[in-house]
Write a structure and sequence with these properties.
The chain is of the alpha/beta class. It is built from eleven helices and 14 strands. The strands form four sheets. A five-stranded mixed sheet has the order 4-3-5-14-6. A five-stranded mixed sheet has the order 11-8-12-7-13. It has a two-stranded antiparallel ribbon with strand order 1-2. The protein is elongated.
Length: 295
């Protein structure tokens, strides 16, 4: 390992400022010099120390360990650098932010097989439907629908195309005629979804003859919990709308009924997304490769 020790003060400035430009101003160099210096340091060690996007900068788990080592004697710093360079086996804490509707990812087997194959990786999954900067919030990766992922992220498909579905229980349909067109939904009791208390309920999206349109239903029950939507539909509280895989087992058992199938075309599904590819941490690389094999 051949590390330019003159790059360590540069790394320390970035670690303390959480910002490349602020670190450059502090050191009296250009932002480009800071970025290139960090890149050279990472290349010499062989692992990413800083996660950067167009919106934020954050130390990786390896970067945090190096920052802690910089307060120690030089012999300990060298030991820490050698330890970081030697870590090619997936290990450490892997933090993921996953939307609640990513059924394939959250169903269990995908993560179970990954954990089995990588016993030194600790997995922390936060299920959230908020849209936020995962890097600034300290996550290694996230899972969302492709249409809402930032352009500077790398995205790997998790499963194939998705379809939304409209369903109701036979008990509800016994007392209410099934809608023949999405516009009929405004006359039905509906169970809606919203990501947060201060956000309007999600519009239900359809297509007819290649033309997409929304129906702004007025749900009698609204929640951010997919399980509550499902349970409410199962007990006959009304019609609800969510990704098709959420309802499939219940439809196959006759507990729910598909509705408005002709107005629900497929669309690009969920993606595992993360910043940058260079010097990726082994734990994240292992997850990416696992998702690719699984898909």
């Amino acid at each position: 390992m051949n590390v330019d020790m003159n790059l360590l003060p540069l790394f320390q400035a970035v670690a303390e400022e959480d910002n490349f430009r602020a670190a450059a101003d502090r050191l009296g160099v250009t932002r480009s010099a800071v970025s290139q210096g960090i890149r050279r340091l990472e290349d010499s060690i062989g692992t990413a120390l800083v996660t950067r996007t167009t919106r934020s900068v954050r130390l990786t788990e390896a970067g945090e360990r190096l920052r802690a080592a910089l307060s120690q004697p030089m012999s300990d710093i060298m030991l820490a650098l050698e330890h970081l360079a030697a870590q090619d086996r997936p290990r450490g804490l892997l933090k993921l932010a996953v939307t609640s509707i990513a059924e394939d990812f959250l169903s269990g087997p995908l993560l179970c097989r990954f954990a089995e194959a990588n016993p030194a990786v600790t997995i922390d999954v936060t299920v959230t439907d908020y849209e936020f900067d995962i890097v600034a919030a300290g996550f290694d990766a996230g899972v969302r629908l492709g249409e809402v992922i930032e352009q500077d992220m790398i995205a790997v498909p998790v499963g194939g195309d998705q379809r939304e579905a409209v369903v109701a229980a036979p008990a509800y349909l016994a007392n209410h005629s099934a809608p023949s067109h999405p516009r009929d939904l405004i006359h039905h009791r509906c169970i809606g979804w919203r990501p947060a208390p201060n956000v309007a309920p999600h519009c239900w999206e359809f297509a007819e003859n290649g033309v997409e349109f929304d129906v702004a239903v007025e749900p009698q029950i609204t929640t951010n919990d997919l399980r509550l939507m499902l349970r409410s539909a199962l007990c006959g509280a009304g019609i609800t709308f969510a990704p098709r895989e959420t309802f499939r087992p219940y439809v196959e058992r006759g507990e729910l009924v598909w509705l408005l199938e002709d107005f629900l075309p497929p669309f690009p599904g969920f993606y595992l997304y993360y910043p940058q590819r260079r010097n990726m941490a082994p734990k994240l690389r292992a997850l990416v490769e696992h998702v690719r094999r699984w898909t």
